[in-house]
Automatic annotation (TrEMBL):
It comes from Thermopolyspora flexuosa. Cell wall formation. This is D-alanine--D-alanine ligase. Keywords: ATP-binding, Cell shape, Cell wall biogenesis/degradation, Cytoplasm, Ligase, Magnesium, Manganese, Metal-binding, Nucleotide-binding, Peptidoglycan synthesis. The gene is ddl. Binds 2 magnesium or manganese ions per subunit. The keyword Cytoplasm applies.
């Protein structure tokens, strides 16, 4: 039994990732209850603040994906309410959530990350789409990977292998955000490395290798059981796996993150890891990568979540 009183799991929200967030919230609530924790699950609506003021929880576990759940907004509100929560603070979230900014920060720490260009929709239109896209292909080469500068779950993301595919990829990307990140696509093994800090500093869990049936780890491949094969731990040479773990911990520290994070990495054919992005609220669904990494490390998910809440409560 935990010494925690009642805790709050935040799930849902109004981002494109709402359904995934609800699934993550349900999973976290289930594993916490299995450890004897009194759990309340709430969405982010007009009743949230009054309910917290009326009955402040000991701590909050944020399972909101995308939007205000990861950009620091909800965490700012929780701090205004003096309610402790699991995860990074608002400032660190804002930096991590913006992919071009996060890439610049980790590059300044010496981490390898693919060359890229961030292009707002207004610039794309004002300067002439064709001329700008031609220069991007000339500079970065092909293939390219296009994705929104903010957001997750691969929504609006696509691989571009031919120059004529780039305009459609940009249009698809702009459906999910106002700025596109066009990145040199690195062929290789996709892995995710989760990081937890249980009070003794950040520690990386075993890397999880991702092998989608269709070759692209898109939204359906992420959240539809059976569409992706996972290997935990990843099938990497020991020295390559260690490089991935070190990269994830370094990214966690460089971005000023706290408690929990997940770094997405591509390992090229020479065994070099490349930082892609970091997630401050990793998915907790049945097909999510953080629970797989925990299992590979012989860590019980309920025990991990409970301990993270206890640390947050003590911090508060």
């Amino acid at each position: 039994m935990s010494d925690l009183g009642h805790v709050l799991v935040l799930a849902g929200g109004l981002s494109y990732e709402r359904e995934v967030s609800l699934r993550s919230g349900r999973r976290v609530a289930e594993v916490l209850r299995s450890k004897g924790v009194e759990v309340e699950t709430r969405d982010t609506d007009a009743t949230l603040v009054p309910s917290i003021l009326a009955d402040p929880p000991d701590a909050v576990f944020v399972t909101l994906h995308g939007g205000s759940g990861e950009d620091g907004a909800i965490r700012s509100v929780l701090e205004l309410l003096s309610v402790p929560y699991v995860g990074a603070g608002p400032d660190a979230c804002r930096v991590a959530y913006d992919k071009p900014t996060a890439k610049a920060v980790v590059r300044s720490w010496g981490l390898r990350t693919p060359d890229s260009v961030a292009l707002p929709k207004e610039t794309f239109h004002d300067l002439g789409a064709s001329a700008v896209l031609d220069r991007i292909v000339e500079r970065l080469g092909l293939p390219l990977f296009v994705k929104p500068s903010r957001g997750g779950s691969a929504l609006g993301a696509s691989i571009v292998r031919k120059a004529e595919e780039l305009p459609a990829a940009m249009v698809g990307c702009f459906a999910y955000g106002d700025t596109a990140l066009i990145e040199k696509y690195v062929e290789g093994v996709e892995v995710a490395v989760s990081v937890v800090d249980l009070g003794d500093g950040p520690v990386a869990l075993p890397p999880v290798e991702i092998v989608p049936d269709g070759g692209v780890y898109d939204y359906a491949a992420r959240y539809t059981a059976g569409q992706t094969e996972f290997f935990a731990p990843a099938r990497l040479r020991p020295e390559v796996a260690e490089s991935c773990l070190a990269m994830a911990v370094a990214a966690h520290e460089a971005l000023g993150l706290r408690d929990i994070s997940r770094t997405d990495i591509i390992v090229d054919h020479d065994g070099n890891p490349h930082f892609l992005e970091v997630n401050v609220a990793p998915g907790m669904t049945e097909t999510s990568l953080f629970p797989m990494a925990a299992e590979a490390a012989d860590r019980d998910l309920g025990t991990l979540c409970t301990r993270l809440l206890e640390i947050a409560a003590a911090r508060g």
